[in-house]
Amino acid sequence: MPFWARLWPGGVVLADFVLRRLGPAIRGAALIELGTGLGTAGIAAALAGAAVTVSDASEEALAFAAHNAGRNGVEVRKVDEKTIRLLVKQLGDDDFTTRETAAKRLQALGVAALELVRETARTANDAEVRQRADLLYKQIVREVLREVAVYKGHFGVPFPWATRVAATGWP
C-alpha cells in the first residue's frame, strides 16, 4: 500500500480540529493542504467552507483526494509538482508574457510553490530568474503564510508534525 493511502491518526485529529475549532474562522479563506494523502484535513476544511487546494508529490494521491472530496460533497483544487516545476521553468522563458503569466500562477498557488520557488531563487544559473524567483518567494511568504492557530502537541518526540495552521486572506 502506498504511503499516502493510509488514514493517519494525525490526519484524523487535524480534520477534527479544523471542523470543531477552526470552522467559523476559515469559512471563505483560501487554504492549502500540503502532503494531502487521502485529503482528510483538506476535505474537513472544505466542509467548513474554505476554498482548499490540495498538494502532494503523488499524482495518484491528488486524484484520490479530489475523488474523496467529491464523495463528501465538496470540491478541492489540486496542484502537482510537475505543474509547479513547469511554471518555475517558465520564469526564465524568452517571452515576457510567458514569464509574467508563470509568476502570477505561481503566486496564486502560494505555499504549494514556495519550496521550488525558493530553490530557484538560490540555485538558478540565470541572475534574472534568481531575482524574479526571490521576489516571488517574498511575495508568497507575505501574502500566504499567516498563522491562524497553534496546536501544541507532540513535544518530546522526534517528529513534531502539524503544529500550525496557516490561511490566506486572514485579516
Relative strand content: 5-15%
List the total number of helices. 7
Biggest β-sheet, characterized?
Answer: 3 strands, parallel
- Spatially, the strands of the biggest sheet line up as 1-2-3
Round the mean pLDDT to the nearest integer and report it.
Answer: 84
Q: Quickly give the structural class.
A: alpha/beta
Shape: globular
- Secondary structure tally: strands: 5
What separation lies between the terminal Cα atoms? Answer: 41 Å
Computed Rg: 17 Å
Low-confidence stretches: none
Order of helices and strands: HEHEHEHHHHEE
Oligomer: single chain
Q: How helix-rich are the residues, as a percent range?
A: 40-55%
Keywords:
5 strands; alpha/beta; 171 residues; two-stranded antiparallel ribbon; 14% strand
How would you summarize the topology of this molecule?
Elements: H1 9-26, E1 30-34, H2 40-47, E2 51-56, H3 59-71, E3 77-80, H4 81-90, H5 96-109, H6 111-123, H7 127-144, E4 146-150, E5 164-167
Parallel strand pairs: 1-2, 2-3
Antiparallel strand pairs: 4-5
Helix pairs in contact: 1-2, 4-5, 4-6, 5-7, 6-7
Polypeptide structure, described:
By secondary structure, the protein is an alpha/beta fold. The chain is built from 7 helices and 5 strands; from the N terminus they run αβαβαβααααββ. The chain has helices at about 10-25, 40-45, 60-70, 80-90, 95-110, 110-125, 125-145; strands at about 30-35, 50-55, 75-80, 145-150, 165. The strands form 2 sheets. It has a 3-stranded parallel sheet. α2 (about 40-45) links the parallel β1 (about 30-35) and β2 (about 50-55). α1 packs parallel to α2 (about 40-45). The N and C termini lie far apart (about 40 Å).
